[in-house]
Structures are given as structure tokens and as C-alpha cells.
Amino acid sequence: MFDDGFVLEDVYYVNFKRGSITNPYTPSLCGVGFMGYGEFDSNDKAHNIWRGMIERCYGTNKTRVKDTSYSDCNVSSDWHNYQNFARWYNDNYYQIDGQVMMLDKDILTKDNKTYSENHCIIAPNSINMLINGRTRTDSGDTPLGVSYHKKTKKYQASCNKNGKPIYLGIYDTPQEAHTVYKQYKEKLIKDIAISLQSKIPDKLFSSLMEYEV
Predict the structure, then answer these.
(1) Cα(115)–Cα(78) distance, rounded to whole angstroms?
(2) What are the residue ranges of helices labelled H in the chain?
(3) Distance CA 190, CA 210 (A)
(4) What's the pTM?
(5) What is the pLDDT along the chain (213 residues), one digit of tens a residue?
(6) CB 157 within 8 A of CB 169
């Protein structure tokens, strides 16, 4: 029995004497994540996904990704327990040929910052990158998808498609350029949703069809 009252069964006394028996409910990953007790272990495909999620939200400078968009993200307390996350992941996982499947936290709920059962979904990489990909601009003074065009002293709209920039024209104001970008990207999202409708969950399809930039 551990200090918190948890009793671990079916262990060898020799391992107990060596001190190699640890409480599976003691946080061992970034001070919050723990393995829990159940059917899932670190060999399951969900483990690397869970570990990456915890490290993005709570990792030190050595383990945390440099993307500042994760600076104020968190993981629901239920998913601090790997058993709970792995069960959800296995229940919701599906595969699309030729696609890398990714855990996404903000397609169903735009700008969501919490990884949880209610907000997350598994989506193919093509959708994840389209939703979360950002078209680079020359400064933070222009809207998303817009950059200042020095030669014409106007504003250029562009959008990434399949990892490549698509240029959408030059406009007098940043607002005009952003409107073109917004319309183009929302159509891209709807087009990919329709093309994958039979392969993705209904709630993912619905969110994509209603998605607004």
C-alpha cells in the first residue's frame, strides 16, 4: 500500500525490497502526467501522443516545443492519467490511407486551449495543417494572410495550400486582402471536408463546413 491508499497487487517481493515498485498515480511526467493503473502501457501507440501533449503544455525549456501558441495551453485533469487518455485515443482513432493522423484541440472549438475529451478530435494531417497553418506576413501589423507589397505599396493576399503558398492578388487595403484570403481559405476547408466526408467523423465534417477564419 502506498501513502495515498493505493494498493498494487500481483507484485514480486524481491522487487519490493529493491525499491523498484512505484506508485502509478505519482506524477512522473512534467510534474502532472502519470501512467495510472490499467491495460495501457508505454508500448501503446497512444503513449507518444500523450507524452507530446503533456510536454507541449507543461514541459521545461528542454522538452517544450518552441511554438509560443502552446504557452497558455493545458490538459484536463482526467487526461493527466495516461489510462484515461489512451482509452479515449483508442476508441476514437481511425486511419486514412496516406495520411498522418493527429490529435487536434481547436478544430471543434476554435481557439480552444484545453486538451480534453470534449474538445479534441483525431484528424488527418492535411486538415490539421490547413486549419492551423499560418501564411507568413512581413510584420504583425497586417491581418492573417496579408503582407505589405513594397513595390506597389499595396497589400498582397496569400494562402498556403498543400504546403505551398498561393498568391491571391494585390489590394489597396489590408482589409480587402484579408477578405479575399478568408474566402479562399474557408472554401479550401469546405472542399477538403467534402472530399473526405465518408472517411472522417461526422462532428469533424460538420465543424469544417461551419468553420470561419
Answers:
(1) 10
(2) 13-18, 46-58, 82-92, 125-132, 174-195, 202-210
(3) 8
(4) 0.80
(5) 444 445 455 544 444 444 446 788 999 999 999 999 999 999 999 999 999 999 999 997 655 555 556 778 999 999 999 999 999 999 999 999 999 999 999 999 998 999 999 999 999 999 998 987 655 444 568 999 999 999 999 999 999 888 889 999 999 999 999 999 999 999 999 999 999 999 999 999 999 999 999
(6) yes
